[in-house]
Amino acid sequence: MRGLKEYPSENAEFLYYTPSELERAIGIWPLHAGRMIAKPNYISGPRQIRYYNLHYILDGQVVYAVNGEQVTLKKGDLFCLFPDTPFTYKVKERNPKLRMTWIGFNGEGAGPLLQYAGITEEKPYCREIPLPDLPGTFRELLHEFRRLRVCGGSLQFVSMICALLAQLAAVSKQEVHETNKLTWIQDSETFMNVHYAEGITVQDVADYVGLHRTHFSSVFSKKLGISPIQYLQRLRMRSGAKLLADTDLSVTEIALSLGYPDLYSFTRAFRKYYGASPTEFRNTKYIDE
Q1: E strands along the chain, which residues?
Q2: What InterPro entries does its record include (predicted)?
Q3: Domains plus CATH for the chain?
Q4: Does the pLDDT of residue 203 top 90, yes or no?
Q5: Bridge pairing between strands 43-47 and 78-81
Q6: What is the largest CA-CA distance in the chain?
């Protein structure tokens, strides 16, 4: 990384900014930014700072300790230093390679914005953030920080911080949503088991659990090893086979009882699934277990 100055434990670029009273009145203002490449003995702390400092790991690993917890974070992860909260972070002994960039800011709006983004003192880090443009976002923030040091006026930089935190908030909310929805697969199975004979579609099931059909089908298939449409078909076919074997209902009555619009569509689906027509199947009394 060009433009770095050598220090005892790192090569780094440190950028500072002093906001005006008007900028402070906005509620969030920039103070510090930079980037670094760690040397094998790199360590920061134990110490504390008086502002918020958001670090993004560009390469390598860092061991981050705060509030009695120690975690190892890696490329693509992010952590935040909170004001007046002691911390230590250092390179991992067996993997001293580390490259990071950061932005430091403060203001009465900073804490709530971070909390909105899912970053709190209790959980001051994010792992494996699914935002491929995040390295570029931090590069743009550094570029803007250099510009405002020369030209002044931090509003653009603040808007970029807000945009970054809005992206992180969207990711955080999606993760919470997915966590809270861990039961939706079971709910969808229950729904299909109860209503499969009523002509329901995959879209109906996705609507029931409140998910987009594509996402629902993708995750359902990955978790259960069978697609929703195959799951519904299996329920209908097995039920149809049982009705053929155990009852005297006509094939048309069975087709309509399973939600098929007519005899033809049921017969076609049944033959494709079992390799025999419903009548042929009834004559053999074969049931797929």
Answers
A1: 5-7, 10-16, 29-38, 43-47, 52-66, 69-74, 78-81, 87-91, 98-106, 125-126
A2: AraC-bd, Homeodomain-like_sf, HTH-like, HTH_AraC, HTH_AraC-typ_CS, Tscrpt_reg_AraC-type_HTH
A3: 5-179 (2.60.120.10), 184-284 (1.10.10.60)
A4: yes
A5: unpaired
A6: 89
